[in-house]
Amino acid sequence: MSRLPHVDSGPYAPPAPARELTAVSADGARLHVEIHGPEGAPAVVLAHGWTCSTAFWAAQLRDLAADHRVIAYDQRGHGRSPASPACSSDALADDLEAVLEATLAPGEQAVVAGHSMGGMTVMAASGRAAFRAHAAAVLLCSTGSSQLVAASTVVPLRPGRIRTWLTRRILGSRAPLGPVTPLARRILKYGTMGPGSAPHMIEACARIVHACPRKVRHSWSQVLDLLDLDHGVRELGVPTAVLVGTADRLTPPVQARALAAALPHCTGLVELPGIGHMTPVEAPDLVSDTIRELVRVHVEVRAHNEAHTHVEGHAHVEGHAHVEGHAHVEAHAHVESHAHIRVATEESA
Fold first, then answer.
1. How far apart are CA 11 and CA 160, in angstroms?
2. DSSP three-state, residue 47
3. pTM of the model as a whole
4. Could you give the residue ranges of the DSSP H alpha helices within the chain?
């Protein structure tokens, strides 16, 4: 048995951040934020899902921080962010805006990756000014925009009212999860992970999920039950990649396909065979590589092109000034020469 909030060794032990700060949301909610990696490197922002914490991104934090500035934060009530009475998709959007404004310089852009409820956070914030100013591209991992309970396949029955009712009762349960036991691991694996998930992956996820306070888990389950962010998907105009596991029971591939079809600029939908809902843990390298590629194409290349355009524009202005200056000299010489000729002519006369 264990009550530790995360594993403390191995690939899923969260690394120590370079620095930590507190972002304050619109309603005063305080959010724990971690920054990993070198200052000045291309920025990545990570938003975790329901019942998780920054520790969920341990593999990506360790990998990407080598050459990126990786910003991860605890959603309100999760991890080290205090609980708040306000639980809504608007609150999620407010929180992401607060984190972006607290960690990114004016005009600085980042790739924003969201897993599960973190992806829903991105959809909720898609029309916000701070999001549009700072998001260069997005990765949506194992998420959906609406009909979450009805689409879930956690209960192995045909779609319909009975399955939806049972799913709602299970996901919205107020029962304490207690310590991580062998039975708890089996239940968590069935509901959230693929059949081939390694024991150390299951252990890492179980520690994180079981550390989420019971009241927080229940409060956010009610938000997810009624969630409808289809409009947010249509407003998500930045390049967006979509990732899902074929064995995801919480947000099955049908959800990812609907997202890919509705997104204005979907860069691709990847369905991972045999992977469940916990994609950043179950397929850590692929998730990191996808984020890295989005940064390369939409942050680094864009920054290079903008810098190149600025240099060309500056050279054009200088060249224009040089031509104007040259014309001025020539005109001045022409006038002086003309005046000299005129004076000489008058003297000879």
1. 40
2. strand
3. 0.87
4. 58-64, 89-103, 117-125, 129-134, 148-151, 161-171, 182-192, 199-210, 214-226, 230-234, 253-262, 279-282, 284-295, 301-348
How far apart (Å, rounded) are the C-alpha atoms in residues 180 and 205?
10
pLDDT in tens, 136-186: 999 999 999 999 999 999 999 999 999 999 999 999 999 999 999 999 999
Tell me the three state secondary structure of residue 111: strand
- Is it the case that residue 293 has pLDDT exceeding 60? yes
* pLDDT attached to residue 6: 87
Best CA proximity match to 143, nearest among 269, 29, 28, 256: 256
3-state SS assignment for residue 247:
coil
Residue 104 pLDDT grade (very low, low, confident, very high; cuts 50, 70, 90): very high
Q: How many CA atoms lie within 13 A of 75 on its CB side?
A: 32
Distance CA 284, CA 232 (A): 27
Order of all β-strands in the sheet with 19-24: 19-24, 30-36, 69-73, 43-47, 110-115, 135-141, 240-245, 266-272
Comparing C-alpha atoms, which of 98, 106, 102, 79 is closest to residue 5? 79
> Residue 184, CB half-sphere, CA atoms under 13 Å: how many?
18
Three-state secondary-structure class, residue 135: strand
Instruction: Of 62, 63, 119, 64, give the one whose Cα is nearest residue 96.
Output: 119
Are 65 and 85 in contact by the 8 Å Cβ rule? The answer is: no
The distance between the two most distant Cα atoms of the chain, rounded to a whole number of Å, is 118
